[in-house]
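tl;dr need the bound structure. longer version: we got a ligand (guanosine-5'-diphosphate) that a collaborator sent over and nobodys looked at where it sits. i said id run it. heres the input, straight from their email, havent touched it
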Amino acid sequence: GEYNQKIDYVFKIVLIGDSAVGKTQLLNRFARNEFFFETKATIGVEFQTRTVVLDRKIVKAQIWDTAGQERYRAVTSAYYRGAVGAMLVYDITKRQTFENMARWLEELRGHADMNIVIMLVGNKSDLGAFRAVSTEDAKEFAEKESLFFLETSALEATNVESAFLTVLTEIYKMV
Ligand code: GDP
Ligand code: MG
């Protein structure tokens, strides 16, 4: 029969967290299976998409990326508007980026829908020798705040699929 690529759902997911934690490369990895050591500021597109099949439904993930707006309160409410999922990203080698998660979470909860699915993501797991945030500390924070949690490497493509697919699956359960 005829293959009809009809989109059943579009889910907006926002990436948030400090500058240089790897948000753009996580998105490049998930949307295009690419990785760059240098992220050109001019690449800063608003979002990238990837279509996945969940439970025989065609789901388009529309994933929004901040382009240098990572200063506190610089991300506008338009960025959060309509988001049904969020990835809160820190760098496992930079303690401060993890400490800042509470602030990002507060900002997210102030703007987003009550039922938003949130995944805490500890990126750069390939740099274990320089680890500054233990898996335990992150798990504890995630449990306290009712967040999903995974450590990822956009460079080595570790857990990137899992992180995004978990968020998409959890969103799907609610529609
Ligand atoms: P953003 O500012 O949060 O969007 O961060 P970028 O995606 O631009 O990444 C910042 C820097 O970290 C770049 O040099 C990336 O190549 C690098 N990077 C991103 N993800 C990883 C990772 O998983 N492992 C390693 N080793 N470097 C990464
Ligand atoms: Mg970026």
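gonna send this back to them w/ a short note. The mean pLDDT is 92.
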